[in-house]
Amino acid sequence: MEAANLVLFLVAALALNLTPGPDMLYVLANGLAGGGRGGALAALGISAGCVVHAVAAVAGLTALAATMPAALMAIKLAGAAYLIWLGIDAWRHPPALTGRATVAPGAGLRIFRQGFVTNALNPKVALFFLAFLPQFVSAGGWPTPLQILTLGALFIVQGTIVLLAVALAAGALRRQLVRQPRLAGWIGRISGSLMIGLGLRLALGELRR
């Protein structure tokens, strides 16, 4: 792998990871609901979902999925519906707000799992990996699959760092909101609305195609 290609990849990947998107909104929503730890667990779940896409890109599974538009649309709509369901659940069961947010072990696993499923059910991430990573593969040297896996791992690590920073910022914002009694009760609604809006945006965007 050429050093110039690697540097160019890291710069491009950072720009992409800093661009607000579904993953960042999901971490923000969980950070507002469960504090920094809740947001961090969501970020780690999303990163685990990215691992699936990176491996699938190497195996060529995403290329196969792209040839079946109906199946691809079904997966996208399923992911959107899942986000909407999570948002409705956040509205119905807002978190108990205290000065210090705590996430029970069982709830932590649920947040991680939801982040994983949300990302794994997003075919756009899979197609992104398939289209983006090969652009930075160098001719000669390492085998192409190994280069793609390495680039995917670097992208995921970099993205995880960015999402963890978002989680910490959301946790800090939550602590400020808790100090304002009138605003504190709206945290569950804010986080739920973010996820519902995201799900609707994904679904409507797909149905308009």
Strand content: under 5%
Helix content: over 70%
Shape: globular
Secondary-structure content class: mainly alpha
Cα(first) to Cα(last) distance is 38 Å
Give the helix tally: 9
What low-confidence regions span 5 or more consecutive residues with pLDDT below 50?
A: none
The profile of the biggest β sheet is:
none
Computed Rg? 18 Å
Order of helices and strands: HHHHHHHHH
Mean pLDDT: 77
Count of extended strands: 0
Kindly give the count of domains.
1
Task: Outline the structure in words.
The chain is mainly α. The protein has one domain (23-207). 81% of the residues lie in helices and 0% in strands. It has 9 helices and no strands. It has helices at residues 3-18, 22-59, 61-66, 69-92, 105-120, 123-132, 144-178, 181-184, 187-207. Helix 1 (3-18) runs parallel beside helix 7 (144-178). The longest helix has 38 residues, at 22-59. It starts with a helix and ends with a helix. The model has no long low-confidence stretch (mean pLDDT 77).
Structure, briefly:
The protein has 209 residues and is mainly alpha-helical. Helices cover 81% and strands 0% of the residues.
Topology:
Elements: H1 3-18, H2 22-59, H3 61-66, H4 69-92, H5 105-120, H6 123-132, H7 144-178, H8 181-184, H9 187-207
Helix pairs in contact: 1-7, 2-5, 2-6, 2-7, 2-9, 4-5, 4-9
Kindly list the characteristics that best describe this protein.
single chain, 209 residues, mainly alpha, 9 helices
